Amino acid sequence: MGQNLKRGRRASPRLPRAFRVFLFGEAVSLFGTATTATLLSLLAATQLDAGPGWMGILAAASWSPWLILGLPAGALADRWPPRTTMIVSDLIAATAAATVPLLWLTGTLSLAALVAVAFVIGSCAVVFRAALPRLVIRVVDAEQLGTANSMLYATESASTIVGPGLAGLIAQAMSAALGVLLDAISFLVSAVCLARTRPATRLPNHAAAVPEESFLQRIRAGVNVVARDRYLRYFAGLAAVQNFGLTGLLSLQVLFLVDELAAPQVVTGLVLATGGVGGVIGGLLGPHVAHRLGTARGLIALQLTSCSCLLVLPAGPGAGVAWMAAGLLLCEFAIVADNVIRTTWRLTYVPDHLQARVSTTIQMLAFAAMPASGLVSGWLGHQLGVRTALAIMLGIYVAAALTMPLGPLKGRRDLPAPPRLSRLLERTASAAR
């Protein structure tokens, strides 16, 4: 993988100061966003009397920007300076978040305003995430990409553990609306840290000359690279199918714990938190798995490990909830470690001027599966029962995971090196013209 995670090469023990400054700001922002996602829901339900319909709209407003803006954001982020793009995204998101306490204090806060804020913050997240890979490869040496991605994914997983609980404490202490102000501050902290981050002026080793293309041609070029490369195409399809299955688990897990397993609220929270703990461990150990097994073999092993999500199914009341906790912990560990390896490889495999477009194309496909999965899993739960619905959705995930040993990685120790894309890029550029 460029081959920074291959056998015999270890990442430098200390990441550059520029990355450490950026990581601090990103950590503050991630924890703030994870807290606000819960605060907005609490605000809508407890103070604005939102029913199920409005709650669904509010949730959709957060992820729908990936479907609407994913491809255009990738095309723009590949042309704009990554640090500037991310700073502007943070400042717009901070402004949007700050409107919530302002409207609440003036008595004009409405559900429509909350939906608009969620959509703006979600849109900023799309642009920010599109530019992030291009910043990382400018502040971290190639040999350190695995460690850098490990820290980013571990931090993101940690935010999912702490964020919801912190939101409850904030809402109880100072009201949910004023709590959103903390998220606005977290975006500003991220922007300041980015402003203090000094990326290298040199381009990555695999950077290529950027062809002159129209906006639509830039979008099509990114899609074509994913569609025509057997590895990127396989990973994109795998992400879409597995997201479909996992979203079914996310949609039904609380209902399963409360209704089927009769778990108290405290136990429910602890069981769900185990997934985040597994994610933190996976984020930290991802590079070690790649170094020990090889990047391709490591991905295969992690995909097979993620099939432990099936341990959710035999869970029962009382001590039987431990089966679900174990399944969530092992599955999330494997998924996040897999993401660390795959993202690190993609940073060295895809040319710099296509990074954002390839990333957002894959992410858009993955997120597109989520709304359909929510509807399907809900219908299955109503028709067949929650446990049966979970078995079907997790079966879809596991079936996709089991294709990994038979797919394009079959027989490989490591993922392919960057030069493999050269001819494909020439064909893509010719087609665009």
From TrEMBL:
It is found in: Cell membrane. Gene3D superfamilies: MFS general substrate transporter like domains. InterPro entries: MFS (IPR011701), MFS_trans_sf (IPR036259). Keywords: Cell membrane, Membrane, Transmembrane, Transmembrane helix. It is a multi-pass membrane protein. Signal peptide: none annotated. The keyword Signal does not apply. It holds the Pfam family MFS_1. The keyword Disulfide bond does not apply. It comes from the Bacteria. The chain crosses the membrane at residues 21-42, 54-75, 87-105, 111-132, 152-170, 176-195, 234-256, 262-286, 298-315, 321-341, 362-380, 386-406. This is MFS transporter. The lineage of its organism: Bacteria, Bacillati, Actinomycetota, Actinomycetes, Micromonosporales.
